[in-house]
Amino acid sequence: MDHQSSSSPKLSVIIPAFGRPERLRSLLEELLSQASLMEGIEIIVVDDGSPEPLERSLRSILDDPTVDARIVRQINGGPSIARNQGAATARGEFLLFIDDDLSVPPDLLKCHIAVQEEFGPALLNCELTWQIEADPEPFAVWYRERTAEWGRSRSEDGKPVAECVYEIAAPLASTANLSISRADFERLDGFDAGYPYGCEDQDFAGRADRAGVRILFTTRTTAIHIETHNTLRKLCRRQMLGARDTVRFLKRFAVEHHVGLPDIARYNNPIAWGTDRLNLAAKKSLRRMLTLPGVTALAFGVIRSVEAVAPRSAFLLRAYDVMVGAFVQKGWRQGLRLHRDVEPLDDWKPRPVDSSLASIK
Fold first, then answer.
1. What is the pLDDT of residues 171-225, one digit of tens each?
2. 93/153 Cα distance (integer angstroms)
3. Which of 307, 81, 139, 121 is nearest to 208 (CA)?
4. Which of 12, 46, 198, 327 is deepest in the core (most CB within 10 A)?
5. Share of the chain above pLDDT 70, in %
6. Positive or negative: CA dihedral 126, 35, 191, 268
7. pLDDT at 153 (0 to 100)
8. Cα separation of 313 and 311, whole Å?
9. What value does the mean pLDDT of the chain take?
10. Separation CA 333–CA 123 (nearest Å)
11. What is the C-alpha separation between 141 and 159, in angstroms, rounded?
């Protein structure tokens, strides 16, 4: 299973994984197919403490004499720790982190190497689209529209570097498929383990940007995210946990101090009586009410009923937005409590005003 070579590989592919062996097997088949036609590729799966060790179900597919592929198992610690563990065992000049719920095109590995060699070393993402098979269909249609909106910003807001290659703002980076030189990864001390659910990619990219690493995005090839949060309840929970970690990210980078109060804080902070406009205060109150246990069950029940009897109703589109927004606010409130003592990173920490200069007019 571990086919070591005397020379270091060009690219180490690192996949953090927890359970979902069938989904992971499909991804590995795609990666092994292209890696077997190339030189200098190694693949490392980091089993993040899956209840059933992944090696048992994947041993046969990884036992390929043409590719250096192996599984590293660790105690469950979350995706950031798993990625760092994979990087610690990797030997490649470049590291490529890939989420286990992706489907990758036949040229993904070649594309990452080519763009890195032409424009890097950089932190690089290839384009990502979503495959959503959600239930029921009205929710699926709404969800596809939302993910399309989320995905457009990278190329639309990016600065063209070359055909199909853009320089993007650090917060737009994603770990779904992310390559970086091993030297830069080690210089940045890897991913921060303090994010149990999300924002570790934005944190990593923010530190990379500050360290002078280019943040690039290419549309030369496209990976597909196989969405597993395929019901409204699952999506609400995911957005709630993501909002919780966003609080930590914003505090670590002192975002409010440097660029002003971000929209997610403006819309989800506790009501500021006397400052918030009446309509914003009303929205905040409604969102909080919708996450009360009895009210939540009732709201989901009403939505299910409308989906059954009036699936084309405009009410549903609004209801999905409101429910997801309510759980974002719930996660935000949790984050404010959990991360109240988080201090900004030194590079972003607001500097005290020199009192001797403050009096000069």
1. 899 999 999 999 999 999 999 999 988 899 999 999 999 999 999 999 999 999 9
2. 30
3. 121
4. 46
5. 94
6. positive
7. 62
8. 6
9. 92
10. 32
11. 31
Model pLDDT, residue 361:
39
Give pLDDT tens digits for 93-148. 999 999 999 999 999 999 999 999 999 999 999 999 989 888 899 999 999 888 88
Nearest CA to 103 out of 11, 48, 31 is that of 31
Tokens of 237: 């929970």
HSE-CB at 236 with a 13 A cutoff on CA atoms is 22
**Three-state DSSP state, 96:** strand
Q: For residue 331, give both structure tokens.
A: 């996660």
Backbone phi and psi for residue 346, each to the nearest 5 degrees, phi listed first: -55, -40
What φ, ψ does residue 43 adopt, rounded to 5°? Answer: -125, 125
Q: How confident is the model at residue 359 (pLDDT cuts 50, 70, 90)?
A: very low
- Do residues 42 and 90 lie in contact, with contact meaning Cβ atoms separated by under 8 Å? yes
Say what the pTM is. 0.90
Residues 6+ apart with CB under 8 A from 321: none
- Determine the residue type at 182: R
d(CA 82, CA 72): 9
**Length of the chain (residues):** 361
**In whole angstroms, how far apart are CA 289 and each of 121, 315, 322?**
49, 19, 11
Q: What is the DSSP letter of 270?
A: P
The pairing of beta strand 177-181 with beta strand 122-131: antiparallel
